[in-house]
Amino acid sequence: MADKYVPRLKEKYYAEVRDALQKQFNYPNPMMIPKFEKIVVNMGVGEAATDAKAIDGAVADLRAITGQQPMITHARKSIATFHLRQGQAIGAKVTLRGDRMWEFLDRLIATAIPRIRDFRGISPKSFDGRGNFSMGVTEQLIFPEIEFDKIDHTRGMDITIVTTAETDEEGKALLDAYHFPFKAE
């Protein structure tokens, strides 16, 4: 029987990163060592308020990037200034867990982030106080899965990396272990 495939970064976590974090923070219990819980990729589609077909392009792009069917998000209340009605589709999101999460993180760090134009590092100030990290991407073209000729509109997205870390310092140490390209402070 063939061995089950294990994502590269997951293997690295159990082989090196856990022990390094254990030494760095002196956790009395191995269950306290921070790990990745999930990654949420959210794409707001503002033009969906006026163009109903705009949401289809966002869903197709997210499906190609993550390999998972996105969930369409709807407006919670009506806002006349933005021509928005309650229940209207205004975005799409995907929650990645398990091996898909590890694969997405690998592609994000290794291929997508280096393709960002005029890239000078990601701000380490985007932690939420509980060890979770959020970043914005201005266009979906940084992902190699998106074909330039097939996109109808460039759209940005928010990527939130949820960890089990208690503090921002622990969350940053977890991402640093994978050489996440933070800006030098």
Overview of the molecule:
The chain has 185 residues and is an alpha+beta fold. The chain is 30% helix and 18% strand. It has helices spanning 8-25, 54-66, 98-112, 168-176; strands spanning 36-44, 71-74, 89-96, 133-137, 157-163. It has a five-stranded antiparallel β-sheet with strand order 2-3-1-5-4. The longest helix has 18 residues, at 8-25.
- What's the quaternary structure here? single chain
- Taken as a percent bin, the fraction of beta residues is 15-25%
Q: How many β-strand runs?
A: 5
Percent helix: 25-40%
**Shape descriptor:** globular
- Detail the poorly predicted runs: none
Helices, by number, come to: 4
**Largest sheet features:** 5 strands, antiparallel
The structural class is: alpha+beta
Order of helices and strands: HEHEEHEEH
Q: Summarize this, please?
A:
The protein has helices at residues 8-25, 54-66, 98-112, 168-176; strands spanning 36-44, 71-74, 89-96, 133-137, 157-163.
Topology:
Layout lengths: L7 H18 L10 E9 L9 H13 L4 E4 L14 E8 L1 H15 L20 E5 L19 E7 L4 H9 L9
Antiparallel strand pairs: 1-3, 1-5, 2-3, 4-5
Task: Name a few traits of the molecule.
5-stranded antiparallel sheet, 185 residues, alpha+beta, 4 helices
